[in-house]
Amino acid sequence: MTSPSTSSPSPHALPQERRVVTAIPGPKSQELAARKQKYVANGVGNVLPIYVKRACGGVVEDVDGNSLIDFGSGIAVTSVGNSAEAVVRRASAQLADFTHTCFMVTPYEGYVEVAEQLAELTPGDHDKKSALFNSGAEAVENAVKIARSYTKRQAVVVFDHGYHGRTNLTMALTSKNMPYKHSFGPFAPEVYRVPVAYPYRWLTGPENCAEEAAAQAIDQISKQVGAENVAAIIIEPLLGEGGFIEPANGFLPRIAEFAKDNGIVFVADEIQSGFCRTGQWFACEDEGVVPDLITTAKGIAGGLPLAAVTGRAEMMDAAHAGGLGGTYGGNPVACAAALGAIETMRELDLNSRAKRIEEVMKPRLHKLAEQYQVIGDVRGRGAMIAIELVKPGTKDPSPEATAAVAKACHENGLLVLTTGTYGNVVRFLPPLVIGEDLLNEGLDILENALASVG
Ligand SMILES: *Cc1c(COP(=O)(O)O)cnc(C)c1O
């Protein structure tokens, strides 16, 4: 077996193959799980407790020698693959030069360069500025700070099925109680939730979903909050934790227009959907929506913790000097990794790779949906694809079938994640550099899992 121990491993230093040689999880993973049980807080769960030894390209290798096909990318983070060559090269060089000065104390070029890249890559040709942080939740919180400071208003509007993080303010913004909010209140005030255009579950059917949902959302904002009190409307252009919900066409532009007409800052939370994941740099581009502010994290830095708020210069400049920041925000090693990840996305044209992944996955999933009534809906874009599972013949969510399918996939060497407000969505987020053979093999495993569940 080749070892990725040199300073710049190739993107595929690990054999790109599935290999299941023990039960999943194997004995060494189980030993580690026992140690975890004793020393790590129970609140920190694991989707699949195989302990990782190495990961690269489209596979994750565990301490027992199993190699799993990766359809998760650590939740849409390692889009460029784990330990991607340019990420390792640039982050290693930065590690050797200096690890931290705090950008608020003595600045460095990498931070500025990431801000330049964000200005270039995000939608719209207006003047843009950025501020960097460590996590997605922190980026969303700062987008709210900026919008409040700019508008001198307080209310924040979010949507059903939305997910924005686990800090106090972002828990308030998040719609799902279990596991994100339960027993953790009280939550931050001045947060209002309105309907989103969820075509599969819209009561009058998908045809008028965009119009009706937008009308309801706007009516609720106008009547219950007062548009003139709203600082920001925050939406995921393709909702992640809510179940990979694509708002019906026309919904996003209508909400963005309403925000514009009423002096409300329109924030696109592209933390999960951004950076080539959906086959565009940012998912809102598919409908030509130009957000005022955009939050990014996850895929931005190939696995290192980095997040950003990018937006209209006059809005970004509304907060007073010293009002934004944090000790580690825009850490130099994370910035170097981001520049390596962006370099990889450009060089390998990962937007095309994401579109190709959709071309391979969607027809097979639609075929499976015809075969297995448990699949109620197939949706998503690029390499952000999901199936929603229901009780056959109904639209009643089936979290049981979802858990069973995920378990069968895991046991056979395919790492998949579940999601959704009703816990009934199997989501696929492969690294964009995954080989097509592995992609198809993963789908074979999924097919067998569906067959075994019925
Ligand atoms: C993951 C996620 C967040 C939170 O990011 P963290 O880095 O986990 O804090 C916020 N918004 C969306 C859309 C996400 O998917």
UniProtKB/TrEMBL annotation:
Cofactor field: pyridoxal 5'-phosphate
Reactions this protein catalyses: 4-aminobutanoate + 2-oxoglutarate = succinate semialdehyde + L-glutamate; (S)-3-amino-2-methylpropanoate + 2-oxoglutarate = 2-methyl-3-oxopropanoate + L-glutamate
Keywords: Aminotransferase, Pyridoxal phosphate, Transferase
Family annotation (PROSITE patterns): AA_TRANSFER_CLASS_3 (PS00600)
E.C. designation(s): 2.6.1.19, 2.6.1.22
CDD domains: OAT_like
Highest taxon listed in the record's lineage: Bacteria
Sample GO molecular function, one term: identical protein binding
Pfam families xrefs: Aminotran_3 (PF00202)
Single GO BP term: gamma-aminobutyric acid metabolic process
Pathway: Amino-acid degradation; 4-aminobutanoate degradation
Annotated InterPro entries: 4NH2But_aminotransferase_bac (IPR004632), Aminotrans_3 (IPR005814), Aminotrans_3_PPA_site (IPR049704), Class-III_PLP-dep_AT (IPR050103), PyrdxlP-dep_Trfase (IPR015424), PyrdxlP-dep_Trfase_major (IPR015421), PyrdxlP-dep_Trfase_small (IPR015422)
Assigned protein family: Belongs to the class-III pyridoxal-phosphate-dependent aminotransferase family.
Protein name: 4-aminobutyrate aminotransferase
